[in-house]
Amino acid sequence: MISGIILAGGAGTRMKGRDKGLEVWHGKALIDHVIEGFLPQVTTLHINANRNHSCYQRRGYPVIEDRTKQLLGPLAGIAVGLEVIQSPWLAVAPCDSPIFPHNYVQRLYHFAQEKQLSLTWVSQNGRDHPLFCLINGKLREALNDFLYSQERRRVLDFFNDHGTALMFSEKLPSFANFNDESSLK
């Protein structure tokens, strides 16, 4: 049993403040593309959003906010996801990356089981994509300490201390972020 969370809680600074998940690409919002590919891979789904709640709630999945109003980045969304899940594992997908393999969660899970990892994420062509990850709930306290007590925010700093990446051979644009206006064309 693997729960899922889509991270849509950012400030959209590279999109001039617009909410990336609600930007339209190929006729529908980026979040809808992500839901379509991610939902079959998880048993339950949550959306982490810090604004435009009603727009995200219309998708029919629980919407959860970061613990604080201060935007602390994607680790805050992962942390709140770990707080609400009922399963041992949390799979994560970013709202602004609509193209990804429809079995990446299963691949990460098998890799985590094989290597006895509590955390793993996607790496492709030498580039990490840590927001496509799988994290075990037993890291909840360590993540909260890292984020709220140590006041650290760099995703890969935490990830490298607790897991390792799985290499994916998919060709671009898999895992590409659509996080600025030019990428939506």
Give a written overview of the molecule.
The chain has 185 residues and is an alpha/beta fold. The protein is 30% helix and 25% strand. It is built from 6 helices and 9 strands. The chain has helices spanning 30-38, 53-57, 74-84, 104-115, 140-149, 155-162; strands at 2-8, 24-25, 28-29, 44-49, 63-64, 89-94, 119-124, 127-136, 164-168. The protein has a 7-stranded mixed sheet with strand order 5-4-1-6-8-7-9, sandwiched between helices. A two-stranded antiparallel sheet has the order 2-3. Strand 7 (119-124) and strand 8 form a beta hairpin. Helix 3 packs antiparallel against helix 5 (140-149). It is globular. The termini are far apart.
Distance between the termini: 37 Å
Strand order of the largest sheet: 5-4-1-6-8-7-9
Mean pLDDT, as a whole number?
Answer: 92
Q: Mind telling me the C-alpha Rg? A: 15 Å
Strand content: 15-25%
Largest sheet: 7 strands, mixed
Taken from the alpha-carbon principal axes, the silhouette is globular
Number of helices: 6
Number of strands: 9
Following the backbone from N to C, one meets helices and strands in this order, namely EEEHEHEHEHEEHHE
Helix and strand content put the structural class at: alpha/beta
Helix content: 25-40%
Low-confidence stretches: none
Compact description:
The protein has 6 helices and 9 strands; from the N terminus they run βββαβαβαβαββααβ.
Key descriptive features of the protein:
185 residues, alpha/beta, 7-stranded mixed β-sheet, two-stranded antiparallel sheet, 6 helices, globular
